[in-house]
């Protein structure tokens, strides 16, 4: 999934493209996306793909496409004070962005079966 918007050169380009395509509509979601660089969740040798609107999987590491994350975050109508439970949180990219919006103490617990 993904590929709905053109690739960016950096995180800001990616977010600008998501905004232009109306995937990111709220200021809260935009600020969260800009605060967390997607490339930080990639293995070094794959970072060239970080700013493409595509899902990425390498072994047990998985990131959904940025357009999917933005649709989820906009649909949840997130705001400070809410709680958030993300089952199967993977890299923690989505949970980190949501945590920035919720502005509360956050607990992350991850179980991995290999």
Automatic annotation (TrEMBL):
One of its GO terms (molecular function) is protein-L-isoaspartate (D-aspartate) O-methyltransferase activity. One of its GO terms (cellular component) is cytoplasm. This is Protein-L-isoaspartate (D-aspartate) O-methyltransferase domain containing 2. Belongs to the methyltransferase superfamily. L-isoaspartyl/D-aspartyl protein methyltransferase family. Gene3D superfamilies: Vaccinia Virus protein VP39. It comes from the Eukaryota. InterPro entries: PCMT, SAM-dependent_MTases_sf.
């Amino acid at each position: 999934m993904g590929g709905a918007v053109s690739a960016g050169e950096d995180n800001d380009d990616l977010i600008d493209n998501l905004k232009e395509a109306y995937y990111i509509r709220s200021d809260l979601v935009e600020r969260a996306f800009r605060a967390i660089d997607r490339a930080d969740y990639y293995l070094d040798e794959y970072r060239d793909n970080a700013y493409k609107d595509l899902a990425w999987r390498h072994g047990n590491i998985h990131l959904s496409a940025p357009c999917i994350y933005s649709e989820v975050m906009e649909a949840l109508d997130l705001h400070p004070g809410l709680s958030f439970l993300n089952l199967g949180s993977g890299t923690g990219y989505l949970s980190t962005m949501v945590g920035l919006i919720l502005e509360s103490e956050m607990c992350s617990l991850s179980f991995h079966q290999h």
